[in-house]
Amino acid sequence: MSERQPVEDEAACRACGTALRGRYCHTCGQDTLARPRPLRDWAAEAFSETNLVDGRTARTLVALAVKPGRLLEACRDGAGSLYQTPTKLFVVVTALFLLTLNFADVQLYQYLAQVTDPDRPVTARADPDGATVHLENATQGERWMQRRVEPAIDPAVTAAIAAAAARATTETDRQNLLYENVSNLEQAAISERLAGWLPNAIWLLMPLYALMLAPFFGRRRLIMEHLVFAMWAHITAFILLILLALANKYGANAPAWPLVLPFLTYFTLAASRYYGVSRLQALIRGAIHLALYFSLVLFPAALVAALTVMDLEAWMAFMLA
What we know:
This protein has 321 residues and is mainly alpha-helical. It is built from ten helices and four strands.
């Protein structure tokens, strides 16, 4: 008897490796003809009300943590039946991120002006340069992904600056001090707006992130390939921020900037595997892409938020003085 010849139907399933005997895998149900779908299908799936979380989510998160790029390859090659789809996973992780911020009472961004020692008075003086105010026994600054502080602008700081303005001997010093209080209130309003606006704006900014991938990782690739990678990158960033928020809830007080290192590490491994470039090339291109994304997209967005709360009348009085 001659040996049985292999047939095309017995090719291995790209999702689980089982020998195929038809279009659908009898082990995992993967459709072997599945390919990237139109954008309208992705949008409809992203906002579907059912099955946002199912049994594949845990398996997906494990693969996301230990096999950077595996989910991307599975989605591109039509072998994604074992994993959660990028759109559903993005919706779930975004929701978890917002819930975690609320649970941990962590503010995405906050501007603070706080008294250093409550037992000592706060004093303020205008610098001769006409643009700087010096505070004693108080600090001013920005905080990212830290526990919320209320009130963000300590009334004692505001009162000390107002008192110094009342004693000022020149109009320049007086306007400088008055505008410092206006600026503090504006910064507090900006931080509140950014904290509420940025997580939702990611839905609008993510396509820009995908478009900016094209010059670095292939202009001839389909935009959907870059969009899948953009969703994966934002999912990874949100998971890192969720872990940071939980750590800070329980007293870690860790800054956000060190997260750039693990993010770039995962980005490098995933981009190298997904786009077929060396890890060094993926690292360099990824670092440049991230810097451009912040400078050309996120910074202008923050500037727009600042302009919407700016007191133009107070700013003009300060500039004219």
